[in-house]
């Protein structure tokens, strides 16, 4: 398994490239602001051919480069239908003050090929199997993507802005809701094994076990959860 990532743009949003191995097809997760140059370097270094762009949610810092990446590579973008409108109008997901600050003449359009994600769906792309979990709360259409464990690696979750090392995504923007994100954390994170690797939308990698033990938001979410697998 090959997973390469880098922080993109002024928002330092983690963009990930995932493939079974070097020299094969790959998927791209969350190409954010100014991601194209670094992304091209990663693809060239590992001799990878993209077949899809996956978007954890529609906020500007995660989808800024979706249309140019899809257009240049002639690949589809996958996003949850609740956030699809943000591909062409990301200002709907921001506060008024932020919209006024960021959108000086900027325009965004959907890629030519947009496909919608569903909760529990398994995407079979580039020789990978990625399970989609709908995790609203940060936005209405937030999702995570999970790779199953292999002999080489444990379970892997690309958590977007649902779960960070020591924190969670903000809920004060349009489409956000704090009780809803707690329920998403309880339903989609707490049942996972402790050694599940969490690759978040911002900041360093962590594990479910570390967050279960130290993240106050997961502790707050615990009453919403049923039995967990843990260790």
Automatic annotation (TrEMBL):
<keyword id="KW-0378">Hydrolase</keyword>
<feature type="domain" description="Metallo-beta-lactamase">
    <location>
        <begin position="12"/>
        <end position="202"/>
    </location>
</feature>
<dbReference type="InterPro" id="IPR051453">
    <property type="entry name" value="MBL_Glyoxalase_II"/>
</dbReference>
<dbReference type="InterPro" id="IPR001279">
    <property type="entry name" value="Metallo-B-lactamas"/>
</dbReference>
<protein>
    <submittedName>
        <fullName>Hydrolase</fullName>
    </submittedName>
</protein>
<dbReference type="Pfam" id="PF00753">
    <property type="entry name" value="Lactamase_B"/>
</dbReference>
<dbReference type="GO" id="GO:0046872">
    <property type="term" value="F:metal ion binding"/>
</dbReference>
<keyword id="KW-0862">Zinc</keyword>
<dbReference type="InterPro" id="IPR036866">
    <property type="entry name" value="RibonucZ/Hydroxyglut_hydro"/>
</dbReference>
<dbReference type="GO" id="GO:0016787">
    <property type="term" value="F:hydrolase activity"/>
</dbReference>
<keyword id="KW-0479">Metal-binding</keyword>
């Amino acid at each position: 398994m090959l997973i390469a990532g880098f922080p993109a743009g002024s928002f330092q949003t983690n963009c990930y490239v995932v493939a079974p191995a070097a020299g094969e097809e790959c998927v791209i997760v969350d190409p954010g602001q100014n991601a194209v140059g670094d992304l091209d370097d990663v693809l060239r270094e590992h001799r990878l051919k993209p077949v899809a762009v996956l978007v954890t949610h529609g906020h500007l810092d995660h989808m800024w480069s979706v249309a140019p990446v899809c257009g240049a590579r002639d690949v589809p973008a996958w996003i949850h239908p609740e956030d699809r409108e943000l591909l062409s109008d990301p200002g709907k997901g921001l506060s008024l003050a932020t919209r006024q600050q960021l959108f000086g003449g900027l325009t965004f359009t959907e890629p030519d090929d947009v496909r919608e994600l569903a909760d529990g769906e398994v995407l079979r792309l580039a020789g990978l199997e990625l399970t989609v979990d709908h995790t609203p709360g940060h936005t209405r259409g937030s999702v995570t993507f999970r790779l199953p464990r292999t002999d080489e690696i444990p379970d892997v979750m690309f958590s977007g802005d649902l779960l960070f090392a020591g924190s969670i995504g903000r809920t004060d923007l349009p489409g956000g809701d704090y009780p809803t994100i707690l329920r998403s954390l309880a339903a989609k994170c707490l049942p996972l094994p402790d050694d599940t690797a969490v690759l978040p939308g911002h900041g360093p990698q962590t594990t479910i076990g570390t967050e279960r033990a130290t993240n106050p938001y997961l502790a707050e979410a615990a009453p919403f959860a049923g039995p967990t697998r843990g260790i």
